[in-house]
Design brief:
about 325 residues; mainly alpha; Alpha-lytic protease prodomain-like; Alpha-Beta Plaits; 2 domains; three-stranded mixed β-sheet; elongated
C-alpha cells in the first residue's frame, strides 16, 4: 500500500475539508436518528457531531495559518497555530460533555419510550462508518506531516465512533429489556468519555505552547548524531553542550554550543558546523539547528537554573 507521501491529495488541509463535509453528513444522519427514536443517547451523539464540525472548521483555519512562511514578526514561522486548534477542540468537547450530562440526567428522571429503533441504529452505524474511515486516513497523514491539528481531529472522530458504539449498546439494551434508564446511562458514559478526551487535548496543546522538548526518540537521534562527530575527531577536540530542544507544530528546533580547538581556522570551524547541521536535519526531518561556536577552553554561562537534562546530554556527547 502506498504511503500518504505518494498521494499528494492526502494533505492535512484536504482531509480537514473532508472532515467538514463528513461532519455535516453525520449531523444530518444522527439528528434524524434521534428524531425518529427519541433516544437521548442518540441526541448526545448528534450534539458531539456539531463539535466535530466546529472543530474541523477551526482546525482548517489554523492549518492554513501554520503553513504561512516566516516573516519579520514571526521569524520562526507560524507552526504553533495548530496548538490553538487542538486546544479549541478540547474546550468544545468539555463544553458539549456538560450539555450531554444535563440532557441525560433530565431523561433519567423522566424516562420516555423509544420508537423506530431499527432506523436509529442503521443511521447511527452509517455515520460511525464514515467517521471511522476518515479517522484512519487522518492518523496516517498526521504521522507523515507531524500535524497535531489533524491528529486532534482524528482522535475526536475515534472518540465519536466509540461514543456511537456506547449509545447503540444502551439503545439496544433499553429496547430488549424495557429498562428505559439504560438509554440515559449510556449518554452519561458517553459524556464522561468525551470529557476525558477533551481534557487530554487541552493538556497536550498547553504543553506545545510551552515549548515542550522533542520526543524521546527524536532526542536519542540527535544525541547519536552528535556523538558520531565527537568520535570522528581527536579525543577531546570537539564537544557539544547546552543542547536544548523544543517543538512547534510540524517543526522541531535544537540549540547547542559546539566547542573546538582555539587554533582552528574560521573556515575549518564553519565547515564542521555545516556538516553537523546537515547531518541533524537529515536525521530529523523538519529540524532547525542553531549552533554557536566556542573554543574548547571557553564555557558559556547562563543566569537560569541548571538543567539536569542538558547536563545528561552533555555527558553523553563528550
Amino acid at each position: 500500500m502506498q504511503s500518504s507521501s505518494h498521494r499528494p491529495w492526502l494533505t492535512p488541509a484536504n482531509l480537514l475539508w473532508a472532515s467538514v463535509c463528513v461532519a455535516v453528513v453525520t449531523i444530518a444522519l444522527k439528528t434524524l436518528a434521534w428524531y425518529v427514536t427519541g433516544s437521548v443517547g442518540l441526541l448526545s451523539d448528534a450534539m458531539e457531531s456539531f463539535v466535530n464540525l466546529a472543530s474541523a472548521v477551526f482546525a482548517l483555519a489554523m492549518v492554513t495559518v501554520a503553513q504561512l512562511p516566516a516573516d519579520d514578526n514571526h521569524p520562526y514561522g507560524h507552526h504553533k497555530a495548530e496548538y490553538f486548534s487542538s486546544g479549541f477542540e478540547g474546550i468544545l468537547i468539555v463544553g458539549v460533555s456538560g450539555g450531554i450530562l444535563w440532557a441525560a440526567v433530565h431523561r433519567l428522571l423522566s424516562p420516555q419510550p423509544l420508537e423506530q429503533v431499527g432506523w436509529g441504529l442503521g443511521l447511527s452505524v452509517a455515520s460511525s462508518a464514515l467517521n471511522g474511515l476518515l479517522a484512519w486516513l487522518m492518523f496516517r497523514t498526521a504521522r507523515t506531516h507531524r500535524s497535531i491539528a489533524l491528529e486532534a481531529d482524528a482522535r475526536h472522530l475515534v472518540t465519536d465512533v466509540w461514543t456511537s458504539a456506547g449509545v447503540l449498546v444502551g439503545l439496544v439494551g433499553a429496547t430488549l429489556t424495557g429498562w428505559l434508564w439504560l438509554d440515559a446511562v449510556a449518554a452519561m458514559v458517553v459524556a464522561l468519555n468525551i470529557l476525558k478526551e477533551g481534557v487530554q487535548l487541552v493538556w497536550r496543546s498547553s504543553q506545545g505552547l510551552m515549548d515542550a522538548a522533542v520526543e524521546p526518540e527524536v532526542q536519542a537521534t540527535i544525541d547519536a548524531t552528535l556523538q558520531r562527530f565527537v568520535s570522528s575527531q581527536a579525543p577531546g577536540a570537539v564537544r557539544f553542550d547546552h543542547v536544548s530542544t523544543r517543538r512547534a507544530g510540524q517543526r522541531r528546533f535544537v540549540d547547542m554550543h559546539l566547542h573546538m580547538p582555539a587554533h582552528w581556522t574560521l573556515r575549518h570551524a564553519a565547515e564542521l558546523r555545516g556538516q553537523v547541521e546537515r547531518a541533524l536535519m537529515d536525521a530529523v526531518p523538519g529540524l532547525r539547528a542553531t549552533i554557536e561556536l566556542l573554543p574548547t577552553d571557553v564555557e558559556a554561562h547562563f543566569d537560569d537554573r541548571p538543567d539536569t537534562a542538558k547536563d545528561e546530554v552533555k555527558a553523553k556527547v563528550k
